[in-house]
Amino acid sequence: MRADRRGWVTAALAVAAFLLTGCAKGADGAPPPPATPEHSAPSVALTKPPASDIELDPVPTTTSGAPLITGVVEDECLLTTAEFSTLVGQPVSPGQNTQLDMGPDGQKRSCFYPTEATGLPKNWINVYGTTGQHPTELVQRANKNTPGSKLITDVGLGAVTVPAALGAPGGDIYVATEKYLLEIHVGEGTPDEARWVEAGKALVAKAPA
Known about the structure:
Elements: H1 2-21, E1 61-62, E2 68-70, H2 81-88, E3 96-101, E4 107-112, E5 124-130, H3 135-145, E6 150-152, E7 159-163, E8 171-176, E9 181-186, H4 193-206
Antiparallel strand pairs: 1-2, 2-5, 3-4, 4-5, 5-9, 6-7, 7-8, 8-9
């Protein structure tokens, strides 16, 4: 299961790099340069969940090709099982914070909500710190770089829904707060705008300050 999750997350990070920068490589076609030392640490303090039965040791990590830092909070399970089930339109298992070893990209953490029907790790929440750009700028970039995306102005400081590639079910919502870029990814289900908005508002209400 961890191998499956690692594969899905690797693909998601590549998509994030494209959405938020417009490309996954530098202008010369080479991979982007490694983060500078000042970008190797989070711009926000780690936030601990009120209670957890899972041993976690989040390591802030700058993602390759995107101005994002993962592992900035310990608890990314910001929606209840009922809230995520409503979003995807089918029952999901309780969210579980999972830390993955991404090799050269370091540690990556997400909260996964597998659907009960398949048990596959295709739905998750990420909480990102940013390197340089404000989260609202990244929301605007995602909207600019993605055909079919839609800005939503009444969720957080701004949000954007992004459809899945090639007409696949699901998609993402990116929500900006003052310190974080929040992401909900749905890989099983096709939320309408009303459900994206409801989930986005619930996410912001529970996001760390």
